[in-house]
Amino acid sequence: MKKRIDAEVDAESVEELTSEQISRRSFIKGAGLMGATLAAGTLAACATEKPATGIEGGDAAAITWDQETDVVIIGFGGAGGCAAIEAANAGANVLVLEVDKYEERLSNTRMSGGIFHSPDPAGDKQALRDYLRAMFSGENLPTKTEGEQSPLFIESILDKFVEVQPTTKDFVASLDPDVQIIDFGGPAFPQFPGAEAAKYTTFIPSYNGGAGNPNFLSSDGSVDKMDTSNGLALMLAIENALEDRKDKVQILWETYGKSLIRNTEGTIIGVQALQGGIDGRPINIKAKRSVVITSGGYEYNEEMRRAFLEGPGITGWAFYGTTSNDGSGIRMGVEVGAQIAKAGKAASRMIFSCPDITHNGLRVGSITEGVGTAGTYCVNAEGNRFMDETLITRDPSRYFSYKEAVKMDITKLEFPNIPSYLIMDETRRVQSPLCSLNGSTAGWKIIPWDEKNDTPVEKGWMYKADTIEELAQKIKDGHDLNRGRLDVDNFVAAYNEYQAVCATGEDPHFGRALRPNEKEWVPVATPPFYALPIVAGGPNTKGGLQADGERHVIDWDNQIIPRLYTAGEVSSVFKFVYQAGGNITECLVCGRIAGINAAAETPWE
Known about the structure:
By secondary structure, the chain is α/β, with parallel strands linked by helices. Helices cover about 20% and strands about 20% of the residues. It has a domain at about 345-540: Succinate dehydrogenase/fumarate reductase flavoprotein, catalytic domain (Flavocytochrome C3, Chain A, domain 1, Alpha-Beta Complex), CATH 3.90.700.10.
């Protein structure tokens, strides 16, 4: 089993450390959850004398249980937090297992933009159902011959979303009286059925009254709640709500969910966990009512990435969410017969992949907001432009624009767009950061970055040259993932093509247009010139466990696995297209549904 990132690191020393030494999260000391754990009402503990039971529990009476509770939740992010809140509201005692240490907790929700969807309750419910169906599955679109969701479960999923999703705004507001809800926008797909009549709306949670977290980490890693917004604000609000329920909820930090325990009838009766992290001591936890898997995707699982992702799953991809997501929930589900749905789905675009910072042998990425901005354009590994670069950052395409990266040339039998390169000049380079400093891995000091992009140049992550021809040759000779494929003539032609687009305002080959906030075309003209390598990637994968609308995990016979529930990225509902904030939305919606239903199971003894 691969070891996680453990040691602490500062921005200056990152490049000198191996993946075994990098700590991504010596942050947020003292923010929310006032202790390392919360007290649980009836949590029991006893000494473990028998060896770990693994998957097949057999006779439940013969198992030595180290702890017991009503509901066990595996993973503490947005989905796990919401499930814990609702299970506690329903009167259940809850135990949350989280592999992170308390002072290093960093879920995808915490790192995210925090956008969530909450349609106006006054909107038309059938229209909402139609819009959600189009995003989740797509079978109501005229050109789709088959939906992306199983026809056995899509109706129940839509039933629950239409019921619960319009209450999301009020739910978030209820978590903490200090949290504000900021309007963000409407439907990303106005051409979809129901988009207008559903009154589909989106919001951002905030404590500081706006979006973004300027300088949210102090020099000692602490944070002032009232300075925060976005995903960090949402998780702080969730933690506040859990603090109010500390008589019902306990979080076991640095505890890794390893295996589900089931009896001879196939019912899930508990979890085998490793206390102290993935190399820790095995403990058996009895779940008298049920287990909920909310452990996220498989971004840092080499085998799953190779198995599921399109194209080169290792070198052609990077992710900028938490490094704790290693596919453990998918593995646990598979071990008890769970059905897998659209495992290759990912919320992704085209991003920087850092060659010097890795985890589990996989490169860590960063959200690269500079892609598609004025004064930049993209070329592929052969030096050719290959797309409208603004599609990468313009709704509704930004989180599936990675599809352009993983296209295969079936004549050459290669992937010409992996890697690609973001090209710019000196004027654009110093204008604004290419990677977000208010979030993602750069904002959380996992990857060092700065306002004028000096850091990536100094570290050799960006290629620099006085002429376009020299820049092309440096990429061809120096970038390990290019393998000498770049053609200098192609590269120069692409440069001239972009200059012509800027001069005429027309892009005859790819249809690039000015974005709404742009007033004029900006050429690439002031040397030196730069190239930043980019690959497919994003915050998270989305494929995983099949679930119904009530969030039961489903087996390959399309039957419910008794007392097993799931929510979040590990079982995402967004199988066709993705609107920004979709994964946070399903944490808030599906997490709540899972928590309520998990608590409603009749306790067994």
